[in-house]
Here is the input.
Amino acid sequence: MTNLNVAVSNEQTGYQNFSAGSFTFRRDEYFAYVDYPDGEYVMPIDDFLKALMRDIAWGFFYGTVNFDSVFGTINHYGNVDLFIGTQNEEYVNNGKDFMENFPSEELMEIFKAILSDWTIEGFDPFAAPQETGTAWGPKNGNNDEAISRTRQVAQRMIGMPGDTEIRSDETGYTVNRHFKDVDQSNPVVEAEPGFEDQIHGFNLWAHLSRSDVTWNPSIVSICKQSLLCPTTEEYILPVEHGNDRVEWFIQCSDEIVWEIKDGKSSKPRASLIMRAGDVACMPADIRHQGFSPKRSMLIVWENGSPEIMEKIKNGTVPRVGVEF
Amino acid sequence: MSVEYKTTYASIDNYNKGGVQMVSGNVKDYVFSNIYEVASKYAPYERVVVAKNLVYTIESCKAEGESPWYTCSHDEFAIAFDYDVEVHYIKMDDTSFIDDEKDGSFRLDDKPAGQYMGKITLNRGHQALLPEKTAYSFKAAKPATLVFQAILGDESNEKWSEICLT
Ligand SMILES: [Fe+2]
Here is the structure.
């Protein structure tokens, strides 16, 4: 059989190839090539790196992380599938899909190595396109500082004694160019003597206005298994998230358009236009991708209950948030 | 050209709800509502569930005037989504009546006996902790929108067919 793989000269570009099971990953100046036993899949390198960054930062996340309509990962919490076409109707119907399962830590280590080698100086896969250089060209340094940012996770509520810090100039988080008009005042806390550490409030909007990443929720408050995960969004969510459980959105400022497709087949279902104050639920059988014309504030509301894991395993997880 | 960006918010008296363009399926699947619209529609401090996942909820209400006193066996959180709301706290002398197994906040008959802990004045986007087993009440000079991270309980009202796109 003719070898249809694109010729990539690492000697010329200075990048490394990586393999995971029967997958091989290669990059050149513009593209990422995913080689698997039945063929080769090509993606623009910037899209690939931005999606890879989210898949790493979210620990393979809840359910399916589609890098696009063909390639991605499915999290089984402890192990993970790497796939070509298994979430694409045409690939599946024609027997062209391919999938391999890995222990999560093993694939995570490989993904991190790819991201580190292929992300060049000046390119920040977490940033909005107007805030970063490009991913293109030959190997030129790295940006390990940017890609090793971890999401801030509160124990109870950020800003409380001993908990995660609120973002500020002092902690290195300046106000984003799209949020210069966001009020930076703090709530007025008038605690009686002895209660200073027990009553607590902070300016969530100001905290968000200082986020240096896009499409990367952090956790600000925890009510048992209920996780309030606000994030700032600009341009396009770099993945199509195929959530395996319902996921709620509360739009806090500006607007986001969500393109909703069927989780399995990728056929279009709907588009949601969410404006300040709008609340919507992503059903558990879809994939969603957001478009945010201006940097906007979004609360992603997650439920970390082990009970949900059980329901996913035995197939009883509710498809919709509420039936009415 | 340098652009001055304007962040667009909404409020209980000025919101611009979005919506859904359907290709296939049922619009009800998206349980689409708007917290300001919900707050504007119901009585002061009537908490309406706008998001639910198992027992966990996000609830919206109108803050106006003084609220009753509430308490809860677990932490809850409140976010002011438009105008000023005061939160007052009391460390109760007796918390033995609080059932650890009972989720969600509940109303107290009166202002409870105990030590006044202080108050927090929230403005747009400010979030406050409502600590477990602490009594709290709200005060707002004019109608404001208050959003809770909570658990389904006595104070939670589900009115899905009244609030969601159908
Ligand atoms: Fe998602």
